[in-house]
Design a protein that fits this description.
Chains A, B: Its EC number is 6.1.1.2. Chains A, B: One of its GO terms (biological process) is tryptophanyl-tRNA aminoacylation. Chains A, B: Keywords: Aminoacyl-tRNA synthetase, ATP-binding, Ligase, Nucleotide-binding, Protein biosynthesis. Chains A, B: InterPro entries: aa-tRNA-synth_I_CS, aa-tRNA-synth_Ic, Rossmann-like_a/b/a_fold, Trp-tRNA-ligase. Two copies of one chain form a homodimer. In chain A, the strands form two sheets. The first copy, chain A, has a seven-stranded mixed beta sheet with strand order 3-4-9-8-5-6-7, sandwiched between helices. In chain A, strands 1-2 form a two-stranded antiparallel sheet. The first copy, chain A, has two domains: about 240 residues, HUPs (Rossmann fold, 3-Layer(aba) Sandwich); about 100 residues, Tyrosyl-Transfer RNA Synthetase. Chain A has 18 helices and nine strands. The radius of gyration of chain A is 21 Å and the shape is globular. Chain A is of the alpha/beta class. At the A-B interface, helix 6, helix 8, helix 9 and helix 10 of A face helix 6, helix 8, helix 9 and helix 10 of B.
Chain lengths: ~375, ~375
């Protein structure tokens, strides 16, 4: 029997996603829904096609609203972390695809408060510096600057405060204890915080769709309990799995877990090459001879998994890689080289876009069309 | 055996102030400290002289700081209530005296958030309207507009947010449960709120002195637990008793308790007269004959108590009233007339000052010297 834990702060063990769906009470994205998405969007994002985006709440209702013309909006977020890694950017890439397809507003909450409250050792000013760096990485993903509002909780709090109070008044201590595992030693900031993460789902009187990793779902459960009582929609959500860490296909990548688990967005070509060659868990055989004879196992091969989730959108090419590896034709070192090239190409582009992002920060946060509208609002 | 309850939200029964001092761990203001105040201030406010201002924390240290020239500042607050009554204004009058004597900055927190969070039936917009009305009554007390900053929690939250997070991170759920009697059914807004009430004690890197009724002291206990860990002073406090409600010298006046308990700041002359004559609990005898023979009891006579606490600053006059009443020379109706005249004179002046206050709101909240400085600050 396998054990695993998934909370907004911790992902451990080999996650059984079917069990998780049951545990969280979400719904699998089935073939029918996938087909509907394809029909609406023209094509399917590889993450959706390949079951990395695997679960949802009310996605059907979102598509209904879209078709009826009442529309919807997107919301996702980010807890500032010192070094963003490849895993962090995965839901953002999918979010960008959704924005491109549906041309809708997107709100990105930078949860500087939560990060600070959760980590006793963090200094406020460090979290702020980190947030600023993370925002550059987010902008580099390529969202629409006129339809995207990126805000830090600490900066935008005055604009949401009435709504925050209304929401907090509807959530009891027992709820956050049950949902998040808080207890009486939890600080009062952290146990209050879930109210804030709920707020952006109320930014428009339309249905909200949240693309995020499944570990954030407990917040949406709380949201769905209080939303209608406040005159808003229950939020919809679309969940990704976790990009496996370098050292094996269980748990979640972590930037604090050391060099052996993650590729950081700041890593240079040489670092990427070294990390993948040294740490990426391989599904290949111990010797070339055995590999040629028995073939590798793509199910547990981290380089293959990363190609599948993120770096090889071409289905035919991916299929060939899989067959060659399983058939012993493609060696472990070669599989790793494929990935290294892909990652380095991706990071090179990312670094360029990130440089340009410095000039775009103001648009996303203050002066763009959506941002400007948002700063003029007090949400009640 | 008498039972009584004193919390920030409830005062019931006949309060034994000596027991309360023990229970809260505060210190009685003794003759020596009173003398020192007199020496420093030139005279003593009647509330201080007559033991209505009766307890403190670190008042001696405040006077030390003042004498050394390092100074201190004042902080008090108000939870918006539909109709402010005479009892609400009592600590404010004493606060004004302190500001006049020491020429120090004063911060007045309008806790619109707390009021809303505590009362499930309140609408946000109603609390806002009420807050605006209360602010006029506060300004009418006559504070120094260049040295006083009045702010609503909801409006100033962005400026305090980093400090609020730092403070909240140091307070656990068990602490607020123990101190305020919260439990798991308490909403997460209310259990977070104590962090905000602590914040103004950190507005300057000087000692803070809080003049307030003793029911607010639990907040200062929490403050004193966390202050030094955050690099600030433990706050000092100076506590008033409760102005007795009309119907008898126990409990606390309440505007929601009905016409028979309180004189509202908006009451007109006739209403005051009717309320006092009809509801003010008298320590006199049932008949004029008995009263002439046995005399009245000023200890339980509400009109006398009000004169003593608030409306007859002249010691000689008050002494004469007491002697005449106890000796049966002054009748109950006459005592009540004395009070009615005093209250109506006070309210007439108050209504005039309140009218002028409308023009001063901006100064106290945004444009006065202290207010302006405060809006330019983010407290970290």
């Amino acid at each position: 029997m396998e054990n695993f834990t998934v909370t907004p702060w911790e992902v451990n063990g080999s996650v059984d996603y079917d069990k998780l769906i049951k545990q969280f009470g979400t719904t699998r994205i089935d073939e029918k829904l996938r087909e509907r998405m394809k029909k609406t969007c023209g094509d399917l994002h590889p993450m959706l096609k390949r079951d990395f985006v695997f679960s949802h709440r009310d996605l059907g209702a979102v598509l209904d609203d879209y078709e009826k013309g009442s529309g919807f909006f997107l919301y996702t977020g980010r807890g500032p972390s010192k070094s963003m890694h490849i895993g962090h950017i995965v839901p953002l890439l999918f979010t960008k695809w959704l924005q491109d397809k549906f041309k809708v507003n997107l709100y990105i909450e930078i949860t500087d408060d939560e990060k600070f409250l959760y980590r006793k050792e963090y200094e406020w000013k460090d979290v702020q510096a980190t947030a600023q760096q993370n925002i550059l990485d987010i902008i580099a993903v390529g969202f629409d600057p006129e339809r995207t509002f990126i805000f830090k909780d600490s900066e935008y709090v005055k604009n949401v405060y009435p709504l925050l109070m209304k929401t907090a008044r509807k959530i009891t201590a027992s709820t956050v204890k049950a949902v998040f595992g808080f207890n009486d030693s939890t600080n009062i900031g952290l146990s209050f915080y879930p109210a804030y993460q709920v707020i952006p789902t109320f930014f428009e009187k339309k249905r909200c769709l949240i693309p995020a990793a499944i570990d954030q779902d407990p917040y949406w459960r709380v949201q769905r309990d209080v939303a209608e009582g406040l005159g808003y929609y229950k939020t919809a959500a679309i969940h990704t799995k976790f990009l496996p860490p370098l050292q094996g296909v269980s748990g979640k990548m972590s930037s604090s877990g050391g060099a052996e688990t993650a590729i950081l967005l700041t890593d240079d070509e040489k670092t990427v090459k070294n990390k993948i060659n040294k740490y990426a868990f391989s599904g290949g055989q111990p010797t070339v001879e055995e590999h040629r004879r028995l073939g590798g196992n793509t199910d547990i091969d981290v380089p293959y998994q990363w190609l599948s989730i993120l770096f090889e959108p071409d289905d035919l090419k991916l299929k060939k890689i899989q067959e060659d590896y399983r058939g012993g034709k493609l060696l472990t070192g070669e599989m790793k080289m494929l990935l290294i090239d892909k990652i380095n190409t991706f990071l090179k582009e990312h670094h360029e876009k990130r440089k340009k992002a410095e000039k775009e920060i103001d648009k996303f946060m203050y002066t763009g069309s959506l941002a400007k509208t948002m700063w003029g609002k007090i949400h009640e």
